[in-house]
Amino acid sequence: MARLTIKGVSKTFGASFAVRDFSLDVDDGELVCLLGPSGSGKSTLLRMIGGFERPSAGSILVDAKDITALPPEKRPTGMVFQSHALWTHMDVFNNIAFGLKIRRMPKSEIKERVENALALVGLSNYGNRMTTQLSGGQQQRVALARSLVLEPKILLLDEPFASLDQHLRERLREEVRDIQQRLGITTLFVTHGQDEALALADRIVVMRDGGTDQIAPPDVIYREPKTEFVAGFIGSMNFVRANIRNGISEHPDFPLAVPVEDGDAVLAFRPEALVLSPSKTPNTAIVHRSIDFGTHRIVDIDLADGARLKAMTPPDVDWTRGSLVEPTATAYFAFRDNKLIHQSAASGELQTNRVFGHV
Fold first, then answer.
1. Following DSSP, what letter does each residue of 268-304 receive, concatenated?
2. Would you give the DSSP letter of residue 115?
3. Which of 326, 240, 323, 239 is nearest to 287 (CA)?
4. Which residues of 41-58 are buried (b: 16+ CB within 10 A; e: fewer)?
5. Closest CA to 170 of 206, 137, 133
6. How confident is the model at residue 354 (pLDDT cuts 50, 70, 90)?
7. Transmembrane residues, as ranges (predicted)?
8. Where are the domains of the chain?
9. Could you tell me where the beta strands, DSSP code E, fall in 125-237?
10. Most confident range, picked from 79-93, 215-229, 278-292
11. Which of 152, 151, 154 is nearest to 4 (CA)?
């Protein structure tokens, strides 16, 4: 289909940077998720690619052709917005056909392409319905069909499922991924939901303050976070502060090997890497609560210094509130000044198939 190249793109609003010197190559047929908190520049970047915002600096190319100065209607892109942006005075057919009519295509071709688009998104025979008669999920399918019917080289999705309930969101993202792979269309998907990014993406771009902290496939992002921010933003992560002396953490609960220069560090470990054992020693960790999710339990524990951590345990072991436990980290990361300075060998074995909403 197409290759997207973003070279040193920046966007300023007054004296503030929304996006700062951003560069990215998206391969033909690849689905890349832009992931980050609100205000990180995700949607602004997507709008610049779609032509709805002009970059303050840098260039955007599709198949090596510079499209930076082109208006949205002249770009080989299709954009699906969070708000659906459907016309309520038109039926489904005419919503989807609108762009084709602007291009003055023959009526017979318009009819064929609209019907094909409706079939693609699972809405055959819905053409005569008004958009107000559709559910939120059906409206989002119409918005997707309206973009796909124009046969764009690049598909842009700006948090399209944010307003939907969790089960519908999960089902639609699977359908979108199936459609994207079937068409082989190059896609950028903006989300602040880590579960969506991990489920959909070939690669994830973790954005912060208009720039990137890490760009990598989902499993690498999870198992090998390069910054403390990425570690805390993807999945659930426990953090404790410790002083490192002679290659050993001096934290009373986690005397871990950290072969780096002496000084303060942040130790991090996933809930599934935290093993709990019963303890009779005073001033150890105390169980705050235990939640049974069927396939596993999430146990909140309070350390003596007041820190609260999460551990993932088998479902058949019940941990009573107030019980004394000894936590052991089987895999861990160490960060200093937001940068990874050490990773235990076992960290690379952590699994990405976690139930993120539960931890």
1. EE-GGGEEEEE---TTSEEEEEEEE-SS-EEEEEE-T
2. H
3. 323
4. bbbbbbbbbbbbbebeeb
5. 137
6. very low
7. none
8. 4-222, 229-358
9. 154-158, 186-191, 203-208, 211-216
10. 215-229
11. 154
Taking all residues of the chain, what is their mean pLDDT, rounded to a whole number? 89
Q: Which residues contact 72 (CB under 8 A, 6 or more apart)?
A: 50, 51, 52, 79
Q: Could you give the dihedral angle defined by the CA atoms of residues 120, 123, 129 and 135, in that order, rounded to the nearest 10 degrees?
A: -120
Beta bridge partners of 240: 267
Q: Residue 247 is encoded by which pair of tokens?
A: 């290659």
Q: What are the strands, taking DSSP E only, across the chain? A: 4-13, 16-26, 31-35, 57-62, 65-66, 77-80, 154-158, 186-191, 203-208, 211-216, 238-245, 248-249, 263-269, 274-278, 285-292, 297-302, 308-313, 324-329, 333-336, 339-343
Q: Measuring CA to CA, which residue among 222, 183, 224, 176 is closest to residue 200?
A: 176
pTM: 0.88
CA distance 37 to 75: 28
In CATH, the number for domain 4-222 is: 3.40.50.300
CB atoms within 10 A of CB 323: 16
What's the CATH architecture for 229-358? Beta Barrel (2.40)
